[in-house]
Write a structure and sequence with these properties.
about 140 residues; alpha+beta; 4 helices; about 35% helix
Length: about 140
């Protein structure tokens, strides 16, 4: 898959099964992708600490599969929740799309994430499971 450029930031969209960045992913800010290979599902996000965010997602997914979440969390619905209730984190790989130093600016990270959500809606290789509708900038 090609690399895209957003405001001069190189976005690496070369997701290859078995070559995820689960253990090597940055502890700093950036844009990431989660690919669930058994269902070819794709989710894109931003974080000021990508590694911590991805580890939180793995733990959250595994708690759903094990049925050990609180009643409120267990009652959540949606495509991502349905996926993790069945699979947990099995088959999930994380990829660093970019950790360009300019992405330390949260507003720029969110703009980049929005750009990538638009790309995800237009591509046909993966099932797009990005469900974010609002983008809040908190300073």
């Amino acid at each position: 898959m090609p690399k895209l450029i957003f405001r001069g930031i190189v976005l690496d969209l070369d997701f290859q099964q078995g070559k995820g960045d689960n253990e090597r992913i940055t502890t700093g800010h950036g844009i990431y992708a989660e690919v669930h290979w058994p269902t070819r599902s794709l989710r894109i996000g931003e974080s000021k600490n990508v590694r911590a965010r991805n580890r939180q997602h793995v733990a959250w997914a595994n708690k759903h599969r094990a049925g050990t979440h609180s009643a409120v969390e267990a009652a959540r619905q949606g495509v991502i929740v349905d996926l993790v209730k069945e699979w947990g984190s099995e088959g999930l790989e994380h990829y660093l799309i970019s950790n360009d130093p300019r992405l330390a600016d949260r507003e720029l990270r969110v703009e980049c994430e929005k750009f990538l959500h638009e790309w995800a809606r237009s591509q046909a290789e993966y099932r797009n499971i990005n469900t974010q509708r609002g983008y809040r900038i908190v300073r």
